[in-house]
Amino acid sequence: MEHTVVIFGASGDLTKRKLIPALYELFRKGRLPGDTRIVGFSRSPFSHESWRDSLREHVAHFTGSHFSEDLWGQFAPHVFYHRGDVLNGDDLGRLGAYLRELEEGRPHARMYYLSLGPEFYEPTVVHLGAAGMAAEQEAPRRLVIEKPFGRDLQSARRLNAKVHEVFSEDQIYRIDHYLGKETVSNVLVLRFANTIFEPLWNRRYLDHVQITAAEDLPVGHRAAFYESAGILRDMFQNHLLQLLTLTAMEPPSRLNADDIRDEKVKVLRAVRRLTAEDVAVQTVRGQYRRYRDEPNVPPGSETATFGAVKLYVDNWRWQGVPFYLRSGKAMSCRTTQIVIQFREPPHMMFEGGPRRIHEANRLVLQIQPAEGIQIHFQTKVPDAGMKMRLTDLDFNFREKFAGEMPEAYERLLLDVMMGDPSLFARADEVELAWSIIDPIQAAWDAGGPPQLELYEAGGWGPPYSEEWMHRQGRTWFNVCPVLS
Ligand code: BG6
């Protein structure tokens, strides 16, 4: 079947930086289904030609050495532009007529990609419905919705209800681009395609899990958006909780979208909700020192740009094992990692052997920038009596597999075209994630403890975060990418 990809918000950043470059890459690799048409829709006055021209430099920039004029010349004729306003029902009606014309009367599977501000999701969906563009009599109609999906449980529920009035759940693809990253999918392969890890993956052998998404960049020009979000809504509700579910879930019996998502949902249900008293002792919040100088940040803003949260998953496997989630802007480097911290050996017969948690075995799943895995274990230092040292064993994707690692959006866009929602969040998943985040956000918004602490850019967040960990007899794994 032929495909049409319609991008609402065609003149936006995401379209230029991610979506069109990803579609170009799929085309270059011969994976874009034959004769796919890509239609941009926004209020900006482009012609087909001028939109193509405006995209060319971005695609060249973001695809680097993969860009060639020749290939661009073959790709560009697949790209079209239609001007209109998502708030105007008639404009969407006209878009529908244009798409039918472009598709020359043949059934095309359509993807409607909402690369829009969240306030436009609902009206766009309503107008798509009114224009008869969601009906699937002829061919699939799939709706892709970017994050943020709501700003709390109540708004996410409302949005789900509104979208469900027009599209059924199996037509909806809620994007979390972390799920398109290779190493994120590899968490499942590592756990469930091997026998050596899974038997240890539980409360008996693990002390705790740390999931860190650190970014060196400050908020910068995104402050207007960031002020209404903050670190919990921007990173925890989606990316970090997704990483937690993949780390903690039980093996699904089959690798299909429903089985996988059912298991993830069970984890989210089992996460213990925090009371305001819990928030005071189980979270840390911070703001980098120069945040209030960023354009569009009101003086005295209390928006957190750093957060650390300790969660428990109340089930047999994980009872008593803390999951530490941490993320921050303006940190020492860009790194996303899941650290599986094992317990110390139950009995130590070697003098000076590992007696403290951070000297025990550790498995580091490096999600980005370099993708790979590192195992930390004790070895004997040669020719030094029985002296021991924690050493490591690396697996680096780039070294083992030739070729570039694909961008998350390539995988995700292709999955939508193929109708595979495994790597997309289901309605219940999104709502459960909000139900975990809401009480924390509410306690922070109420100004309760912990106090917002300022931190210097270029470090690992507020000093209190380190102290908080030490008080629990643990240390953060503050290592910039372990693999390069
Ligand atoms: C986005 C957040 O969802 O993820 C940004 O809105 C953040 O604030 C980004 O910078 C991080 O994505 P990545 O892929 O660079 O880790």
Task: Describe the fold and architecture.
36% of the residues lie in helices and 20% in strands. The radius of gyration is 24 Å and the shape is globular. A nine-stranded mixed sheet has the order 14-13-12-11-7-10-9-8-15, with helices on both faces. It starts with a strand and ends in a 13-residue tail after the last helix. It has 484 residues and is of the alpha/beta class. The mean pLDDT is 95. The structure holds 6-O-phosphono-beta-D-glucopyranose.
Work out the number of β strands. Answer: 15
Task: Outline the biggest β-sheet.
Answer: 9 strands, mixed
Major beta sheet, strand line-up: 14-13-12-11-7-10-9-8-15
Order of helices and strands: EHEHHEHEHEHEHEHHHHEEEEEEEHHHEH
Q: Could you tell me the radius of gyration in angstroms?
A: 24 Å
Strand-residue proportion: 15-25%
Helix content: 25-40%
Shape: globular
Name the poorly predicted regions: none
Indicate the mean pLDDT. 95
Specify the number of helices: 15
Catalogue the ligands: 6-O-phosphono-beta-D-glucopyranose
Distance between the termini: 41 Å
- Class computed from helices, strands and strand pairing: alpha/beta
List the helices and strands and how they pair.
Layout: E1 2-8, H1 13-28, E2 37-42, H2 48-63, H3 69-75, E3 79-83, H4 89-102, E4 108-114, H5 121-130, E5 141-145, H6 153-164, E6 172-174, H7 182-192, E7 206-214, H8 223-227, H9 230-248, H10 257-270, H11 276-282, E8 283-288, E9 306-312, E10 322-328, E11 335-342, E12 362-368, E13 372-380, E14 388-396, H12 397-400, H13 408-418, H14 427-445, E15 452-455, H15 463-471
Parallel strand pairs: 1-2, 1-4, 2-3, 4-5, 5-6, 7-10, 8-15
Antiparallel strand pairs: 7-11, 8-9, 9-10, 11-12, 12-13, 13-14
Helix pairs in contact: 1-2, 1-13, 4-5, 6-14, 9-10, 9-14, 10-14
The protein binds 6-O-phosphono-beta-D-glucopyranose.
Residues 147, 177, 215, 234, 336 line the site of 6-O-phosphono-beta-D-glucopyranose.
